[in-house]
Specification:
- The complex is a heterodimer.
- Chain A has nine helices and no strands.
- Chain A is mainly alpha-helical.
- The termini of chain A are far apart.
- Chain B folds into two domains: 56 residues; 59 residues, no CATH class.
- The chains are: A mainly alpha, B mainly alpha.
- At the A-B interface, helix 2, helix 3, helix 6 and helix 9 of A face helix 1 of B.
């Protein structure tokens, strides 16, 4: 079902539940993986994914459609991730590297993780990046989003995003080479 | 090492059937949220302001009502005019129940309705005459 049709059906009380169920099915994987790559832990990702969809339910009726639905959904998911990570730091008074160390430890111990050593090493390299730079990298590298789309999601200029991605790649390659 | 040399892989996994169950979980939470939707801070404040405004309005209306029923319909009416609207029976009832009943009131009353005295003086005429005989009339101050 097209996004426009989904929204129209959502606006009618008779078809609201059906439309929203379709929306969840359509976007659940994108939202979940976007979050999971940022918070690493499945339980955290599960909680945040549900929160994202509840926010979508509450706000979809007032969605102005001046942006595409999936960029709007990505923006909600991104904000949830950033809020979660900053709350985690505030809670434990941790500087960025301690949160990275905690998430890195989860990479070593999580039962819901697969992949060889080099892939785990890549994930650990990503954890060394600042949250926003990691988001940019994930959306460009894994989700294959265009810079214009990422710009719409993060509210950052395309030029700044290109520079950010370029620096991220450089830092990751350095990490992979020296660790 | 170059990033482009690495294959793009998703190393994270989810529990079995996770994405089959997630839509129902979300729908359940949405329903719960609808049923037990908390009143937002703004709504709490809004209702608080409305309650205060309503209480104030009720208070003002009460004052207006009390003022109107306690005010005479004609503010220029004299006390004599007002008394003219009160029946003798009502005036008598007031005087009987009033603790400030004075001798003068009784004398005026007896001039108007001499036969009413038995209604508030529960004694026989003989008792009254006997009581009057015992009073030294010279000591009475008649205004």
């Amino acid at each position: 079902m097209e996004d426009q049709e989904l929204i129209l059906k959502f606006l009618h009380s008779d078809t609201r539940n059906f439309a929203f169920n379709q929306l969840v099915r359509q976007y659940q994987q994108k939202v979940y993986w976007h979050i999971r790559k940022m918070v690493i832990d499945h339980e955290d990702a599960n909680d945040l994914t549900q929160e994202v969809f509840i926010k979508i339910w509450k706000n979809l009726a007032s969605f102005r459609q001046d942006s595409q639905l999936y960029t709007w959904i990505y923006r909600i998911a991104t904000n949830e991730c950033l809020n979660f990570l900053s709350a985690k730091r505030r809670k434990f008074f941790l500087p960025i590297h301690d949160v990275a160390a905690e998430l890195s430890q989860k990479l070593d111990t999580s039962p819901t993780l697969d992949g060889d050593e080099i892939q785990k090493k890549l994930q650990k390299a990503l954890l060394q990046l600042p949250d926003k730079q990691r988001l940019v990298f994930n959306m460009k590298y894994y989700d294959d989003l265009k810079y214009e789309e990422i710009s719409e999601i993060l509210g950052t200029s395309v030029g700044a995003l290109k520079a950010s991605y370029h620096h991220a790649v450089k830092k990751i390659e350095d990490y992979l080479t020296h660790h | 090492m170059k990033l482009e040399d690495l294959p793009k892989e998703n190393i994270y996994q989810v529990p079995q059937h996770y994405f089959d169950k997630l839509p129902n979980r979300v729908m359940m939470r949405v329903q719960e949220n609808n049923l037990t939707k908390p009143v937002s801070l703004w709504n709490q404040q809004k209702y608080s302001y409305m309650r205060s405004a309503l209480a104030g309005l009720v208070l003002i209306l009460t004052f207006i009502f009390i003022f109107r029923i306690s005010s005479p319909s004609n503010p220029n009416a004299t006390s004599t005019d007002l008394l003219a609207h009160i029946s003798d029976k009502e005036a008598l009832d007031y005087l009987i129940t009033s603790e400030k009943l004075e001798m003068q009131d009784l004398s005026l009353l007896s001039q108007a309705h001499t036969d009413l005295s038995h209604e508030f003086i529960q004694v026989s005429p003989d008792d009254v005459i006997r009581a009057l005989d015992e009073v030294d009339l010279d000591e009475l101050e008649l205004n």
